[in-house]
Amino acid sequence: MVIWDKLGVLNEALRNTGNHPVNTVADGSDEWEVASAAFDQWVPILLSERNWHFATQTQTLDRLGDSSYPGFVDEFALPADLMQLINVWSVEAAGLVYPYQGWGRPDEDMMPPPLQWSIVGNRLQTTARDGAIAKYIAFPTTLQPWSVGFVKALRYRIEAAIYRGLNEDMSEAARCDKEADRALIEAGSRSTSEEPRRAGFRSGLAEARRYGRSRVYR
């Protein structure tokens, strides 16, 4: 993983399109204005299109009080840097997940029990007596630990905007958009392939079947 900054990505796109790079941030040049606007537009869009591992974080949520939403008991604050919520699980269920040992398990014994939740008024409504943990995509910061594939897709989007806004070359802009689509698919596939096999939920019934015991653990 490489740390990327906005100015570096923009200058790569400007050079690739035959334009002069900029020396400083917000220098008022046409090159900066066009490339910067494209960067600011496309970064959140691309981040929201995949569950990128480099942008994924987990956080234990702060309980705000009792939920007034029918069917739920607890209300939690969402992370301050939340862009897109991926999943939520209870602290209790997380304690029942045991490390993968390197050998196969039944499909029904792969994940902790699903947690029902809903977002109302920018607050998470659920039932998690012992607390809740969120997995989410965070808003980008100044320095980005982005993957090479993600930056490739982003750069092509910026180059397309430069071709339209500075070079007035619509055919090259269309080509860059197609390259960006292709790069996004490739980067998404690689990101997905990096996902390890999921940890298993400790199911008493499955363990009884596996080891020939009649007792069901609760």
Number of helices: 6
The residue-averaged pLDDT reads 83
Please give the radius of gyration in angstroms: 23 Å
Number of domains: 1
Return the structural class.
alpha+beta
Indicate the proportion of strand residues. Answer: 15-25%
Quaternary class: single chain
> Spans of 5+ residues with little confidence (pLDDT < 50)?
106-110, 197-218
Helix content percent band: 25-40%
Tell how many strands the DSSP assignment holds: 9
Q: What does it look like?
A:
It contains six helices and nine strands. It has 218 residues and is of the alpha+beta class. The chain has one domain (6-211). Strand 2 (63-66) and strand 3 (74-77) form a beta hairpin. Helix 4 packs antiparallel against helix 5 (170-193). The longest helix is centred in the C-terminal third of the chain and has 24 residues, at 170-193.
Short note summarizing the structure:
It contains six helices and nine strands.
